[in-house]
Write a structure and sequence with these properties.
The chain has about 250 residues and is of the alpha/beta class. The chain has 10 helices and 10 strands. The longest helix has 14 residues. It is globular.
């Protein structure tokens, strides 16, 4: 079953740059869909379009549709705040708030109006377990979050998103600044999380794309070149440009 469907989606910025051109793509539910390709291909723009973070940028023109559970997220009357709670985003650089670990995780939930100590406690443990962080920091939840390592901070940001129980998690190069051990922990967490969440990932390398993708989509200069199940796309791509990129012969 497809969770998100893009229909001929195009977007250009006010400076004339066309970031996406006629993209049609189905993103299946409870799988990891990887968007990969060279820099400037439109991958991050597409991620931001999925929860309307592009509303905050200077867009000149936009066309086509993005459907979430069959509903056009750009239709008039859509509650954008509710959409962003349902479709959460984790960025490449972890944004750690100047609070304790506990408050970092629960900040969004408390902002959304949750005040029950029991539910907050349950959400804290559940999200830290899901982010593979609970065993490392459960005895120091009131320590400053900034004292955590880079890898732990990234997983803390993931836990903060999970505390809100979204349906879709968007990740924009979440391991780009991490060491191999931290990267492996994040990737393992994603494999567990896809049991309950739809995940859309922009990886930091082709190797990570191949390791994590249930579905993969190759982007080049704002166009979707091809998409297919991960194993098929990385072992037998249909388009020569995809094969050149995957095999390191691109450009």
């Amino acid at each position: 079953m497809d969770k998100i469907i893009l229909e001929n989606f195009s977007l250009s910025y006010s400076d004339g740059t066309e970031s996406l051109h006629q993209v049609s793509l189905a993103i299946p539910e409870k799988q990891i869909t990887v968007l990969f390709g060279p820099a400037g291909g439109g991958k991050s723009t597409l991620l931001r379009a999925l929860n309307r973070l592009n509303d905050l940028t200077d867009i000149r023109q936009q066309s086509g549709r993005i459907l979430l559970d069959g509903v056009d997220i750009y239709a008039s009357g859509v509650d954008v705040a509710a959409l962003r709670r349902k479709v959460s985003m984790v960025f490449a650089t972890p944004v750690v708030l100047p609070f304790s670990i506990r408050r970092n995780v629960l900040f969004g939930l408390e902002l959304a109006g949750e005040s029950s100590p029991k539910r907050l406690k349950e959400a804290l443990e559940r999200s830290l377990v899901q982010a593979a962080l609970w065993d490392e920091i459960s005895d120091r939840l009131d320590d400053p979050a900034v004292a955590l390592s880079g890898g732990q901070q990234q997983r803390l940001c993931l836990a903060r998103s999970l505390a809100l129980q979204p349906e879709v998690i968007l990740l924009d190069e979440p391991t780009s600044g991490l060491d191999p051990i931290s990267t492996s922990k994040v990737e393992n967490s994603l494999q567990e999380l896809k049991r309950d969440y739809t995940i859309v990932l922009v990886p930091h390398s082709v190797q990570q794309a191949a390791r994590t993708a249930d579905m993969a989509a190759f982007f080049l200069q704002g166009e979707l070149v091809e998409s297919a199940p991960g194993k098929a796309l990385f072992t037998n791509p249909r388009d020569q440009r995809t094969q050149d990129y995957v095999e390191g012969r691109f450009g």
